[in-house]
Structure formats: C-alpha cells, structure tokens
C-alpha cells in the first residue's frame, strides 16, 4: 500500500470466520441456550475455512480507489511448511564488473541498487512480492502455456521480482529491467525446495504511485500492458 504503514492493523485471511452475536452466550449455562443457538455453535465448531487454491495479485488506481491512492496487494499459496520471511535489504553500491548470485545463477550486478522490503521463501534469493524505497511494488504468479518450461538453472520469476525492485525507480523502469534480464538469461529452475522439480512461467504485476503494469512471460517471450486507472488483478492465467 502506498501511504502510511499501519503496523497495528490486523490482516483478514480469505475464509476467516468471525463469530456471530449468538456465540457470546455463556457456554457454562446450557439452560440459557436455545436450540437455535446450540445448532449455530455446533455448526461454527465444525467449520473449517477453505484452503486457498490460487495465487493472486491486485492493484487499484483512482478513481477505483476511494482515497485516491494506489493500492497494491497479493496473497500467497506457497507450501504450508515453507518458511516465508519478510526481510529488508539496504541500498548498495558496487564496483563495475561485480556479479550477484541469484537462486541458481549469477548475473551482472549494477553499480547501485535500491533499498527493498521483500516477502520471500527463506530458501531462495528472490521474492514473491516486495516494495522499494521509491514506492515501486511487484508481485508474481506462476502461469503455463504451450511454450516449454525449462528445468535447467536460470532466473526464477521470484529472482526477477527482486532484481526489478532493486534496479527500478518506477514501475515502467522495473518492466524494462525484468524484460532485459529475461531476454539475456532466460527463466527456469525449480520453484520449490522439493525432490521433484516444480517449474512455471511467470506473470508480474508492477505498480508505483502513478501507474501499474501487467507483464506476462513465456520462456524469453513477453508482453506488457500499462494500467493508468481503475483496477486490475492477475492470477495463474495469461490475460493480455
């Protein structure tokens, strides 16, 4: 969210159930409970929230945003036993010719990187989502097409998220960063820390304080769409 951070706010999960007013009755006083109340409590006790089945990203720009702000959000459906950490990396300066080790391969480092906050699986270098010091936000989703998905080591889509944030001072510049790296190094490698490789192409949603971009890829092919107003979401399908 571009604007004030609210660390005390509570996140509401999809499928979360809030107790109805009937549930505040004294559980130690069964005589006070009507049959309707008992049935309601039994139903609530046996309810299990549905498990999220897809990964989603959305952005809202004025006039769709009530407060005339750009709002960016993303959920995650990574493996339940995988550690997802929120980490901060400060801006950095590097000597020309330096390499940076991503999850599987090295790429040429730039001379200056932006400060970033990332949400990422702890075992890899990249990130599922994040923001940088210039207010650029990026999230990615897995997609599949008729283009073969490579299992050989290359850049993960999550590596490209971090690289776009570290090198892009606007959403449009981050699109240029990601597409240039995609064309140079390609995408590939397993996206899960598991014996059986799990691979996919990637679609990205990028936003800053004035606009957003949808970037869809398959192998080294890509297409991008600029969003200047309204709202847009991406999931696990190609849409452009």
Topology:
Blueprint: H1 35-45, E1 57-61, E2 71-74, E3 84-89, E4 92-93, E5 99-101, E6 106-108, E7 112-113, E8 116-121, E9 129-132, E10 137-143, H2 157-167, H3 171-185, E11 201-207, E12 212-218, E13 221-227, E14 230-234
Antiparallel strand pairs: 1-2, 1-14, 3-8, 4-7, 5-6, 8-9, 9-10, 10-11, 11-12, 12-13
Helix pairs in contact: 2-3
Protein name: Secernin-2
InterPro entries: Peptidase_C69
Region (Disordered): 1-37
Summarize the structure.
This protein is α+β, with helices and mostly antiparallel strands and 240 residues long. The protein contains three helices and 14 strands.
Describe the structure.
There is one protein chain. With 240 residues, the chain is α+β, with helices and mostly antiparallel strands. It has a domain at 56-123 and 136-234. It contains three helices and 14 strands. The chain has helices at 35-45, 157-167, 171-185; strands spanning 57-61, 71-74, 84-89, 92-93, 99-101, 106-108, 112-113, 116-121, 129-132, 137-143, 201-207, 212-218, 221-227, 230-234. The strands form four sheets. The chain has a seven-stranded antiparallel sheet, covered by helices on one side. The chain has a three-stranded antiparallel sheet with strand order 2-1-14, with no helix packed on it. Helix 2 packs across helix 3 (171-185). InterPro entries: Peptidase_C69. It comes from Micrurus carvalhoi.
Distance between the termini: 25 Å
DSSP strand content: 25-35%
Q: Outline the biggest β-sheet.
A: 7 strands, antiparallel
**Helix-and-strand structural type:** alpha+beta
Protein name: Secernin-2
InterPro entries: Peptidase_C69 (IPR005322)
Family: Belongs to the peptidase C69 family. Secernin subfamily.
Organism: Micrurus carvalhoi
């Amino acid at each position: 969210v571009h604007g004030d951070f609210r660390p005390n706010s509570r996140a509401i999960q999809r499928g979360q159930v809030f107790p109805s007013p009937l549930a505040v009755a004294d559980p130690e006083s069964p005589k006070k409970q009507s049959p309707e109340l008992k049935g309601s409590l039994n139903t609530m006790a046996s309810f299990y929230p549905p498990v999220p089945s897809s990964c989603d990203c959305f952005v809202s720009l004025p006039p769709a945003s009530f407060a005339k702000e750009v709002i960016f959000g993303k959920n995650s459906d990574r493996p339940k036993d995988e550690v997802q950490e929120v980490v901060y990396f400060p801006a950095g300066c590097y000597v020309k010719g330096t390499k940076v080790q991503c999850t599987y391969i090295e790429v040429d480092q730039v001379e200056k990187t932006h400060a970033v906050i990332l949400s990422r699986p702890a075992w890899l270098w990249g990130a599922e989502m994040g923001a940088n010091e210039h207010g650029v936000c990026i999230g990615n989703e897995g997609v599949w097409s008729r283009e073969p998905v490579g299992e050989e080591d290359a850049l993960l889509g999550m590596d490209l998220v971090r690289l776009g944030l570290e090198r892009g001072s606007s959403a449009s510049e981050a699109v240029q960063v990601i597409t240039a790296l995609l064309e140079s190094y390609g995408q590939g490698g397993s996206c899960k820390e598991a014996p059986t490789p799990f691979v996919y192409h990637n679609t990205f949603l990028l936003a800053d304080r004035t606009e957003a971009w949808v970037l869809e890829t398959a192998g080294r092919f890509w297409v991008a769409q600029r969003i200047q107003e309204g709202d847009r979401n991406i999931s696990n399908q190609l849409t452009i």
